[in-house]
Design brief:
Elements lengths: L1 H25 L21 E5 L4 E4 L6 E10 L3 H5 L3 E8 L2 E12 L2 E14 L2 E5 L3 H4 L2 H7 L9 E2 L6 H17 L3 E5 L2 E3 L4 E8 L6 E11 L2 E14 L2 H11 L1 H22 L4
Parallel strand pairs: 2-13, 7-9
Antiparallel strand pairs: 1-3, 3-11, 4-7, 4-12, 5-6, 6-8, 10-11, 12-13
Helix pairs in contact: 6-7
Amino acid sequence: MRATIVPVLILLTAFAAAAPAAAQEQAPAPAEAPIEAVPTQAPALPEKIQIGLSIDHLSIRSDFSGAELTIFGALENIDPLVSRQGRYDVVVVLEGPARPVQVRRKDRVLGMWINTQSETFVNVPASYSVATTRNFQDMAEPTTYRQLSLGPNYIHLEPLDSNDPPVTIAEFRDALRERKKAAGLFNERIGGVRFLSQTLFRATVALAPNVPMGTHRARAFLFKNSVFVGESSAQLAIYKAGFEQSLYEAAHQQSFLYGLFAVALAALTGWIGSIVFRRE
């Protein structure tokens, strides 16, 4: 009797163990959650500055006593919040043609003033007019201006002989800046740049009566929260007009003939004067 019951118990146990496995295989898989696409924000474009001149050349005569030049510009891709806070600053520069300049120092020797020492600087702008939105110290750090060579007090003046003592070079460099400022060739106008809207601005720079002839370059520098962002530039040609321009061109292009003509004219003038004022 026991031999018959054991196989039945084993069969029932095997069936009970196999039933959950089959149920587990037939159970449906849980549904996966749908994947939603997250929109990505495009990176902000960097701010840019553009300037334009209403004229690309300016003619002046011998009676020229100075003038003001107006330069218009625009900002692109600005941050409206930064603009409302007034944290955009613009510096506009009108830079004259670069020339070498020699600075001499006179000392009194035996009762006479004679040149005792000199220093030559290369690529010195013949003129440098600046207009800004605010004071330089309120817009950026001095190191930024030195890196950009921006501003009459920070423009880089490179000596021809860099082996001279640094103290001597600094002394002559300061003297050159002072002479340029005294002649009106290095000048700055604080508040000369005004915003007409959030993106448009107008700059007014001064032209000295002795402004040099040649190609000048107008440059605009943009600062955001005291950080330099970018710059733009345009060119302006300044030249003499009329009879003065003809003499200027003759003196530079035909210097030998111009010299002979000057000597002949002086001799003729002296001869005519001797006849007119001759005493009987």
